[in-house]
Write a structure and sequence with these properties.
Layout lengths: L2 E10 L2 E11 L4 E5 L6 H9 L6 E6 L2 E2 L10 E4 L11 H11 L4 H14 L15 H13 L5 E5 L7 H18 L2 E6 L2 H7 L2 E6 L2 E6 L1 H6 L4 H6 L4 E4 L5 E4 L4 E4 L5 E10 L3 E8 L2 E8 L11 E6 L4 E3 L1
Parallel strand pairs: 3-8, 3-9, 6-7, 7-8
Antiparallel strand pairs: 1-2, 1-4, 4-5, 9-10, 11-12, 12-18, 13-17, 14-15, 14-17, 15-16
Length: about 325
């Protein structure tokens, strides 16, 4: 394995924020640590980068123990949520900074920095002040500054959280394409499930300091291992079964009709979101969400009595 986390544990003021996290990451893999605020994902990232020392456990990169190695001596580079750019420097000098710290001559450092800016599409902004760059340009600048030092592991700490929704989508594509092109092993922290599902080779879902599930984006969406993962990833409905078990179904797998076989219920709420109309149907087993494509919508109203049809393959027991 290229990057290994062995039973990493960290506590603050008696509260365990990372609890024996174990994870193996392959060379060139992009792994997303996904979870709600306070789940331990950022602390885990910071232990990989050397900014936080674990109470116990180990961090290994290419079989070398990095657990007690200072951050500046690790073969890692981090893009922080705030970007941490130097406002008094131009774009090219921000990117060249890491090379200058390695005692690379200014001329050579600036030349390589301009090449990196070209790679991220900022060649025309090389001499611009950081303060004149847009949010997306600053994000790409921070990425270029991290990549120029040729790290073995790139760490991304919610780097898209300060961007608007459309720009986040574009930057996700750009990060994925650049990461694939360079083949760099990457750990990406986010609380945004759409971001994680759209960018990762594997998703690590965390909750209360522990790993709930590790799998491909399709795996964690279609086959959630726990109730938490089912409720956190995407949307869906929990239905009561006989005994103590419950089933879970995604809204795109529910059809509603005026009559016929199925689970009867009453529409309690309708939510319009452009191409899809979401119906909330109160049934004896619980409230079901049903996503109906706008072009197939029958125009049911609140209070309508309907039948919910769910395919057996679309329902799974937790």
């Amino acid at each position: 394995m290229f990057l290994q986390l062995e039973r990493l544990t960290k506590s603050y003021s008696g509260r365990t924020v990372v609890d024996e996290v174990t994870l193996d990451i392959e060379p060139g893999e992009l792994v997303c640590l996904l979870g709600p605020s306070g789940c331990g994902k950022t602390t885990t990232l910071r232990m990989i980068g050397g900014f936080v020392t674990p109470d116990s456990g180990r961090v290994l990169i290419e079989d070398s123990d990095m657990t007690r190695v200072p951050a500046n001596l690790r073969p890692t580079s981090t893009v922080f949520q705030s970007y941490a750019l130097f406002p008094h420097m131009s774009a090219v000098r921000n990117v060249a900074y890491g090379l200058r710290m390695q005692r690379i001559a200014r001329k050579d450092a600036d030349s390589r920095a301009r090449e990196m800016l070209t790679m991220v599409g900022l060649q025309s902004r090389a001499d611009a002040s950081v303060e004149t760059l847009s949010g997306g340009e600053q994000q790409r600048l921070a990425l270029a500054r991290s990549l120029i030092v040729n790290p073995k592991v790139l760490l991304l700490d919610e780097p898209l959280s300060n961007l608007d929704a459309k720009l986040r989508q574009r930057m996700r594509r750009e990060i994925r394409m650049l990461q694939s092109r360079l083949g760099i092993t990457t750990v990406h922290v986010t609380h945004d499930q759409e971001e994680a599902l759209g960018i990762a080779d594997r998703v690590v879902v965390m909750n209360e300091g522990r790993i709930e599930q590790i799998g491909s984006p399709r795996d964690v969406y279609e086959r959630p291992a726990t109730r938490f993962v089912a409720g956190f990833i995407g949307r869906g409905s929990f239905l009561a079964n006989r005994g103590s078990k419950e089933s879970f179904v995604r809204p795109e797998d529910v059809l509603i009709r005026a009559s016929g076989d199925g689970l009867r219920g009453t529409i309690s709420h309708i939510q319009f979101s452009g191409p899809v109309v979401t119906y909330f149907v109160d049934t004896p087993a619980g409230t079901l969400q049903a996503d109906i494509p706008l072009k197939s919508d029958n125009g049911f109203e609140v209070g309508s009595s309907v039948t919910c049809k769910i395919g057996n393959e679309a329902t799974f027991v937790l």
